Amino acid sequence: MSYIVFALKWRPKNFDEIVGQSHIVSTLKNAIQKNRLAHAYLLAGPRGVGKTSTARILARALNCKDGPTQEPCGKCPSCAGIANGSSLDVIEIDGASNRGIDEIRTLRENVKFAPVSGKYKVYIIDEVHQITSDGFNALLKTLEEPPEFVKFIFATTQPQKVPPTILSRCQRLDFRRISVMEIIQQLEKIIASEKTKVERDVLAAIARSCDGSMRDAESVLDQLISFAKEKVSLEDVVSMLGMIEQSSIFEIADKIIQKDAQGALKILDELLDMGKDTAILLSELIEHFRNLMVAKVSKGDPKLIDLPAEICQRLLKQSESFTLEEIFSAFSILVNTQEMAKRLESWRIPLEISFVKLCRDPKHQESKSAQPRSMTEEKPQAKDKRESDSFRQQPKMNVIPAAGQQFQKKSENAEPPVANSEITEIPEEINQANANVTLDSVKEVWQKIITNLGKIKMSVATYLNEGMPVNIDKDVLTVSFSKNHSLHKESLEKKENKSLIESNLAAALDTVLKVNFVLSKEEKISSDTEKHPSVRSALDMFNARLINE
C-alpha cells in the first residue's frame, strides 16, 4: 500500500476528532439531535482548520445507516463510500474549476434527482467564492427552495466575496484559527502513534510557524520526520523552515535591556550569516514585544499568550525589565522599521537602525541634550532682541512691551522688560496712542507682523494668516476667521500664542492692544478678504475676481 501523508491519514473521521472547533461541533450535533438541520451551510475560516473535513463528517452523519446521527459508524457502505470519494450521493465540487453559469445550470438539473442509496443528496462546494456572479444568480432559487432530500455545504476562506444574497440563504459557521497549544497536543498524539522521537520544543516551533493551520502543522511534521535521521531536534526544524530560534529573540531583547547596541548588532550579523530571513526576524521581534506586553499586564497568563508555560514564565521574567512605555516605544520603532524596509532594497539597514535606537539609554540622551540647552538658553532672548531691533529700524515703529509686562522709561542702558510681570500703571501717552490706532493702520502692518511671527513661530504665523482684522474698539483688536478655520482660532487662543501676537502688535503699532478671535458668520470673509495681500496677489496673478457665497 502506498504511503499516506499525515494530513490525510490524521484527517478527522467524526465530530469528536475535530480539533479547536468545539462551537461548530456543538452546533451541528444539536441540530442533528433536534432535527433542525438547515438546507444550506456556509463554512468560513482560514486554511487548514477543518472546513472540508467537517463537511464530509456532516455528510456521513446524514447518510449513515443509523442516520441522521451524531456519531456516524464509519463502516457502513454509505460512510465508506463518502470516505473514499465513491459515493454517488455526496458530490464534491471545486468552486474554482466549476465557476461558470453552465456548470451551475448542470447542477440545477441534477438536484431534482433523488439520492441513490442514502437519505440525502449532499453538495459540497469548496472555495465557493470563486463562482462567478452569473453562476451565483443561477443558483439563488435552487439554494433557497431545494428539494427536501438535498443539502448544500459551502466552504470558503474568503466569505466577504460571497454575495449577500447567497449568505442570507445559508447558515454561516465561522471556523477559528487553532491555538498553538491545541496544535501541540494533536502533534503529540501523532508522534506517539507513529512511535517517533520529537523534542517538545520542535512541536512548539512547528505550531508557531503554521499560523493556526492544523494541516500545515501536520505537513511540516511529516516533512521533518523524513528530513531527520533519528530524533527530530530543534536544529532540524530551524534549518528546514528557516525559522528564527526563540532563544535568539530573547537574546536580542536582553541586549536591548542592557543597552548593548554592539551586542545586538553582532546577533543580527550572526543570524544573517546563517541565511535567516530579515523579514521573518522583524515579525518575530514584533510578536515578541507583543508577548512581553501581555505577559507584563496578565502576569504571564499562558492562555492569553498562547505559548507553552515555560516560555510564558521566561517572558514574564524578561518583561519585568521593561516598562510598558518602553515596550510601546519598541513596538512603534519596529513597526516603523517595516515601513522603512518597504522603501529600501535591503532589510539589513533598517534593522540595524532600529537595534541602535532600541539600545539607546533615554536618561543618557536627556542628560546630554540638556547641556546645550542650558549653555544656549540666552539665545532666544538674543533672537527676540534682533527681531525687536528690526522693528526699531522701521520709521515710527518703536518696540513697546506687550500687555502683561511692566512699562519702563526708555534709556540706552535700560534692561529689557521682564515677561509675565504684573502691570502697575499704563502711561498716559500709551492710552493716547490707542485712540490714534485705526483698523486701516493695523491692516497696513498686518503682513509685516505675520512675516515677523514666521521667524519666531511658524505655526502661529500660518494660522494667523487665515484671519483678517475686522474691528478695533479702544484697546481690543478683533480678528475674524471663516467657519472652516475654527481649529486655527482655537490654537491662537492659547495663552502663549496670544501673548506672542500681542507683543508683535505692540512693537509694530507703538501701542498696547489685546486680541480677540472670532468666527465669521459667513463661510468666507467677504469685504476684507479681497484686500488681504495674499488674496490680492492671487487675484492679480490669475486675473480673477472674488465671488462671495
Essential attributes:
single chain; 549 residues; alpha/beta; Rossmann fold; Helicase, Ruva Protein, domain 3; Zinc Finger, Delta Prime, domain 3; 4 domains; 5-stranded parallel β-sheet; 3-stranded mixed β-sheet; 26 helices; 8 strands
What does this structure look like?
With 549 residues, the chain is of the alpha/beta class. It folds into 4 domains: 6-174, Rossmann fold (3-Layer(aba) Sandwich), CATH 3.40.50; 180-241, Helicase, Ruva Protein, domain 3; 246-364, Up-down Bundle (Zinc Finger, Delta Prime, domain 3); 381-409 and 416-542, GMP Synthetase, Chain A, domain 3 (2-Layer Sandwich), CATH 3.30.300. The chain contains 26 helices and 8 strands. The strands form 2 sheets. A 5-stranded parallel β-sheet has the order 2-3-4-1-5, covered by helices on one side. The protein has a 3-stranded mixed β-sheet with strand order 6-7-8. Strand 6 and strand 7 form a beta hairpin. The longest helix is centred in the middle third of the chain and has 21 residues, at 278-298.
- Note poorly predicted spans: 363-432, 523-527
Q: What is the tally of beta strands?
A: 8
- CA-atom Rg in angstroms: 38 Å
- The SS-based structural class is alpha/beta
For the record, the count of structural domains works out to 4
